[in-house]
Amino acid sequence: MTSGTMIALAQAGGGRCGECGRLWKECNEALDEYLSILAERDAARKRQDYDLVEAFEGIESDWLEKCENSRLAIFAHESGHILQPAGKRRQSSSPEEILATELLPQ
């Protein structure tokens, strides 16, 4: 299953508003670019073009950070959808704490 397929499945289950779609699109684009950079870096490594491999290290790190930031933005936004219908106030931005809140008996 490709990253685009996994994201499409998540979007189908979680697309609740326009902002959801925008955030998922942004995350998908960041992930696609990151994977493309990894593939290019791997190809440079196979060609033993170590200058290019080294040049890709910083770019790879930047795109990995963009992927992580996109994932966190989705989590922050989606947690609002999860907690608001139940009348719960979001008191944490931690995935573990929000999950624990959802699992506690009411």
Summary keywords:
single chain, 106 residues, 4 helices, 0% strand, disordered N terminus
Report on the architecture of this protein.
This protein is an all-alpha fold and 106 residues long. 79% of the residues lie in helices and 0% in strands. The chain has helices spanning 3-14, 18-46, 50-83, 95-103. The chain has one domain (3-103).
In short:
The chain has 106 residues and is mainly alpha-helical.
Count the DSSP helices: 4
Average predicted local confidence, pLDDT: 77
How many β-strand runs?
0
Unreliable stretches covering 5 or more consecutive residues: 1-9
Main pleated sheet: none
The helix content, as a percent range, equals over 70%
- Rg on CA atoms, Å: 18 Å
Global shape: elongated
Number of domains: 1
- DSSP strand (E) fraction? under 5%
N-to-C series of helices and strands? HHHH
User: How widely separated are the two ends?
Assistant: 37 Å
Strand pairing plus helix content: what structural class?
Answer: mainly alpha
Write the layout of secondary structure elements.
Layout lengths: L2 H12 L3 H29 L3 H34 L11 H9 L3
Helix pairs in contact: 1-2, 2-3
